[in-house]
Design a protein that fits this description.
The complex is a heterodimer of chains A (372) and B (163). Chain A has 372 residues and is of the alpha+beta class. Chain A is built from 14 helices and 10 strands. In chain A, the strands form 2 sheets. An 8-stranded antiparallel sheet of chain A has the order 2-3-4-5-1-8-10-9, covered by helices on one side. Chain A has a two-stranded antiparallel ribbon with strand order 6-7. The relative contact order of chain A is 0.12. With 163 residues, chain B is mostly helical. Helices cover 52% and strands 9% of the residues of chain B. Chain B has helices at residues 30-35, 41-51, 55-60, 75-81, 89-92, 94-104, 116-140, 144-158; strands at residues 13-19, 22-28. Chain B has a two-stranded antiparallel ribbon. In chain B, helix 7 runs antiparallel to helix 8. The chains are: A alpha+beta (372), B mainly alpha (163). At the A-B interface, helix 5, strand 6 and strand 7 of A face helix 6 and helix 7 of B.
């Protein structure tokens, strides 16, 4: 499969169809594995890294899950193509910096992506739409079981799977979900939630993982530890915490509608106004405003069939996607213009926010007063 | 005073840290202090934290010269990168890693997935131990016929054949 095909077929997780998809954008589970008696990628010399790659890549490509896959050496991808894959969460930012001796293999549906010689020899990731951590784990676990029959993984009876960074040793698993939490941000309760999540040993990060800031009210929640807990226990614990956060987000939205409706309509109105009429927009501003539009769809201020164009804009307005679609090199200023132009075009037939619809929905949800 | 790391240049950077009421001192030369990022105090404390309390004492004991026999990685390399060199490093630096893993994880032992291959190896080791015990018993009982049979089985198992 060619890169162009990959671009054209938006990944499954981008379509937003999974359970709780209004709040949970995507679920991801990744496993880190290394070969026995080989230097980890960060320490291995170029020749050894290449030898390891040649050992692993054919084994990954022949997986039944990788029929009609996209398989590319990192040195054969342009900086822009790598960035597109980062924006789709198909490779990590760290992997995008790699060149000779590294590769990426992913399936057509973009639900399974395997990085060779990232920080570890193998980083296998499954990504699903909505809250589907269990099925994401099932897929990546199956792939791991198939591969371990052909590759000798570094494993220790006491410490489990051995990884380059001691923070991943044990299961080598990182399960995470990307949550859209505008209600908790607008009601200023997000810090409490983050603190509570941190306290129970889970990590909260921004849009693109470690060391990135939260934009577009998007937060990644993942397990922090990998040793001393079984894989399914980690997945269950994380799922339960996320279900609780979903409840809190719903509560926050109800509270906003009831007590701060003016602020809420003002935010939605401004987001609609700016997105429909602006002629220059940074990706950060676009994300933040699109987040409010998404909230507007969730609350019924925009019709449900307007959800997809908003969701698509989240990814299409990212710098590399924008650059890729324009076919020519753009500077930051030109990108901001193009971004605003694309958004204006897609929102041209977008109805104005209708807050009466929200009020109606709320009335139908409140219990009928008891008859006298 | 000589640098604690390279032990050839005069130390010009004297670092004292008090962690959990315990004072730790390191004396470094200009070059080594730059190399270890000591001049950025937050970075250094972070590396120390990563290695667990007492890491600096290990520097004084000369631990950085300890090399992984498999890949040549040293503890100093770990301080610099926060990553290990290969899977054997977990054995080479087991002592220092113990407290580190304890501090960063929920438990100290893996209780999750076991690769089938490792599973087979565990079974093989168990079988080997049993055969060796039987062999010793047979020899002690001067039962040379079964001892010879057991010896053949051990040889086969050593060569990776199923017994």
């Amino acid at each position: 499969m060619k890169f162009a095909n990959l671009m054209a077929t938006g990944g499954e997780w981008l379509r937003g169809e999974g359970p709780h998809h209004q709040i949970v954008i995507s679920s991801r589970v990744r496993l880190a594995r290394n070969l026995k008696q080989r230097a980890f990628p960060g320490w291995a010399k170029k020749t050894e890294r290449t030898a390891i790659l040649e050992l692993i890549k054919p084994r990954v490509e022949e997986l039944p899950e990788m029929q009609d896959s996209f398989s590319e050496l990192l040195q054969d991808l342009s900086a822009l193509e790598k960035q597109v894959l980062v924006e789709r969460h198909l490779i990590s930012r760290e992997h995008a910096a790699k060149s000779v001796g590294s590769a990426v293999i992913m399936n057509r549906r973009q639900t399974l992506s395997i990085m060779v010689n990232e920080e570890d020899h193998l980083r296998m990731q499954s990504i699903r739409s909505g809250l589907q951590l269990k099925s994401a784990f099932k897929l990546v676990d199956k792939v791991d079981s198939t591969l371990e029959a052909k590759l000798d993984f570094a494993y220790d009876g006491r410490l489990g799977y051995l990884t380059a960074c001691p923070t991943n040793v044990g299961t080598g698993m990182r399960a995470s979900a990307m949550l859209h939490l505008p209600g908790l941000v607008l009601s200023e309760m997000i810090n409490q939630v983050i603190q509570a999540v941190n306290k129970i040993g889970l990590a909260v990060r921004g849009l693109y993982g470690e060391g990135t800031e939260a934009m577009g009210n998007l937060f990644q929640i993942s397990n922090q530890t990998t040793l001393g807990e079984k894989e399914d226990e980690i997945v269950n614990r994380l799922s339960k915490v996320i279900e609780t956060i979903i409840e809190k987000e719903h509560d926050a939205r109800q509270m906003l509608i009831q007590k701060k409706s003016n602020t809420l309509w003002d935010q939605i109105g401004r987001a609609y106004g700016v997105l429909t009429f602006a002629h220059a927009m940074t990706s950060k501003e676009a994300l933040n405003l699109l987040s409010i539009m998404k909230l507007g769809v969730d609350l019924g201020a925009f019709p449900e069939d307007r959800r997809l164009p908003i969701d698509e804009l989240f990814i299409d307005t990212q710098p590399a996607h924008l650059q890729k679609s324009s076919q020519q090199k753009l500077n930051a200023e030109e990108r901001d213009h193009l971004r605003a132009q694309i958004i204006r075009e897609r929102l041209r037939v977008f109805p104005k926010p209708d807050i009466t619809k929200v009020a109606k929905e709320l009335e139908s949800e409140t219990p009928e007063p008891p008859n006298q | 005073m000589l640098c604690d790391v390279c032990k050839c240049n005069d130390a010009t950077v004297f670092l004292t840290e008090i962690v959990a009421g315990k004072m730790q001192k390191v004396n470094l030369c200009e070059g080594c202090s730059k190399e270890k990022g000591v001049q950025d105090p937050t970075g250094f404390a972070l590396a120390d934290l990563l290695l667990g309390i007492g890491a600096t004492e290990e520097i004084e004991k000369g631990a950085p010269s300890q090399k992984c026999p498999m890949c040549g990685f040293t503890q100093a390399d770990f301080k610099k990168t926060g990553r290990l060199g290969c899977s054997v490093c977990y054995v080479t630096f087991a002592e220092g890693l113990g407290s580190l893993l304890k501090a960063m994880h929920k438990g100290t032992e893996h209780i999750g997935k076991l690769p089938q291959r490792a599973h087979r190896e565990v079974e093989r080791d168990d079988r080997m131990r049993a055969l060796n015990e039987d062999l010793q018993k047979a020899v002690a009982e001067e039962n040379y016929e079964s001892a010879a049979a057991l010896r053949d089985q051990i040889k086969q198992l050593e060569h990776g054949k199923a017994v």
